[in-house]
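User: Can you write out an input/output pair for a complex, sequences first and structure second?

Assistant: Here is one pair. Inputs:
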Amino acid sequence: EVQLVESGGSLVQPGGSLRLSCGASGFTFSTFWMNWVRQAPGKGLEWVANIKYDGSAKSYVDSVRGRFTISRDNAKNSLYLQMNSLSAEDTALYYCARDISASGGLDCWGQGTLVIVSS
Amino acid sequence: QSALTQPASVSGSPGQSITISCTGTSSDVGGYNYVSWYQQHPGKAPKLLIYDVTNRPSGVSDRFSGSKSGNTASLTISGLQAEDEADYYCTSYRSTSPPLYVFGTGTKVTVL
């Protein structure tokens, strides 16, 4: 069974840092682009970042570029999101998702991990 | 980055067909066949319905179909059913530097 499981979300103070992880199973992780997508409470979906299957290319939404870093370890079937300089606007449920088409078709999603930025 | 524009809500009766629009620009929806559609029920992760404008992943009902004309993509739900009541989002590749993806504003579908 194809599965993604996120972890690492928690309550963090403004200006703080957090590292999210996403463990993959049931498919050949090293052959898929992977993404992070977030959803603020009661709001819509926002694409955050993606990374090529070999880690050689990465993209970010403007609001996180320079603060967040996406990475992957194909040997561990894991995706990461290092988040620095967090602000209240980063409060959201963070999903990792697999891109089936290398063109934004995200066919497998985790259950999400909640990040709350508050003092 | 600005989101793609979707109607806030669409409604229909069981058995009817409804269409949700997703309007962008020539830098995203109009310029590439990289539009996807997602369904999200409350408290659940999104589910992929359509990718690359018209393609349905395995297991998705053929009641869901996608199309595109100019800068506007559309999702049509035929034979509307009670379980189709959910939020729907489009997304598109956008040719900024570096390139990225952008979601639509979301549409709440209500089955009357």
